Amino acid sequence: PDRYAVVGNPVEHSRSPAIHAMFAEQTSQSLTYERLLAPLDGFEAALRTFVAAGAKGCNITVPFKFDAFALAATCTERARLGGAVNTLRFDADGWVGDNTDGAGLVNDIQKNAGRPLAGMQVLLVGAGGAAAGVLGSLIAARPAHITVVNRTVDKAQAVVAAHAHLGQTLNVGLSAATLADAPAAQDIVVNATSTSLAGAASPVDACVLKPGTLALDMMYGPKAQGFLDWAASHGAKPRDGLGMLVEQAAEAFFFWRGVRPDTAPVLRALRTAP
Ligand code: ATR
After folding, report:
1. pLDDT of residue 196
2. Nearest-CA neighbor of 61 among 197, 198, 220, 201?
3. Is the pLDDT of residue 198 over 80?
4. Between 264-272 and 16-27, two packed helices, what is the crossing angle to 10 degrees?
5. Which residues are catalytically annotated?
6. Distance from C-alpha of 82 to C-alpha of 99, rounded to nearest angstrom
7. Whose CA is nearest to atom 7 of ligand 1?
8. Are residues 195 and 228 in the same domain?
9. ipTM, 2 dp
10. Which of 42, 45, 96, 243 is most buried, taking the most CB atoms under 10 A from its CB?
């Protein structure tokens, strides 16, 4: 079987191995998928060892998505836009980088949560690697406007500037603001910050919500709970990042294998056996 892995630090709680095992079984693909803990100063060495052992590709998680972008010989356009890579394919003539997080997020919102993005007011909270990696795909889904807010406003401005051309081309309004200046009454709010928020807490004020706002945290498990509780307590519809995780994995699986797995039964299985 061909070897794949998720490479990160930490990586022990990743649910990607379970997801790819289900995809492989469902599509009769012969592959293994493991967890690879890379030292913080040894990401490239860990990859080279894995490749020398015959690996065909990997997913990359925190904090190595920018390093993976730098190591890829070529990149897909959606990876280049955010400057971050979450999927590598080890082709013989060079490593190819992709970023499937944005497509995963958009598919989860539209397909799994059943919420269209076209014409909507969207708030993206955060401007680190996670946020930068999904902004291009959010724009491509043609909402009316996306506001990127961040504690460090310069980073929000830089992420918006890097996508300004795409926004203009697709007629999607883009703006950057501080957390305190987040706009009120958004249709969809996506938390892409790395804070684990205790209790019912959020980096932004509850005025960003209105009844029924989809409030999605890109994390899953206990780390997402504070934000989800906050959203629910203000009448919004909370959603964790598990659906996005499964959808980005399906995009990566397709990038490696050329086969598109069915995500619905996999997401159901993960929800029933946490
Ligand atoms: P990731 O790859 O997960 O995006 P990152 O690049 O370190 O990681 O980005 C972390 C994000 O979470 C940033 O938007 C960060 O805000 P800053 O750019 O101002 O650092 C945000 N973040 C982290 N801790 C935060 C906190 N306590 N309050 C608000 N935002 C926070």
Report:
1. 74
2. 220
3. no
4. 140
5. 65
6. 8
7. 128
8. yes
9. 0.97
10. 243
Host H or E run for residue 97: strand 94-98
Residue of the CA atom closest to atom 2 of ligand 1: 129
The type of residue at 237 is: K
Q: Would the annotation count 126 as a binding residue?
A: yes
Helix (H) or strand (E) holding 179, with range, is none
Q: Are residues 166 and 219 in the same domain?
A: yes
Q: Is the dihedral of CA 180, 186, 192, 197 positive or negative?
A: positive
Which CATH number characterizes residue 118's domain?
A: 3.40.50.720
Does 128 belong to an annotated binding site?
Answer: yes
For 134-180, what is each residue's pLDDT tens digit? 999 999 999 999 999 999 999 999 999 999 999 999 999 999 999 99
Q: Given the structure tokens 């390093």, which residue do they identify?
A: 67
The residue written with tokens 């490593």 in the block is 95
- CATH value at residue 72: 3.40.50.10860
101 is in an annotated binding site: yes
Structural tokens at position 178:
């501080």
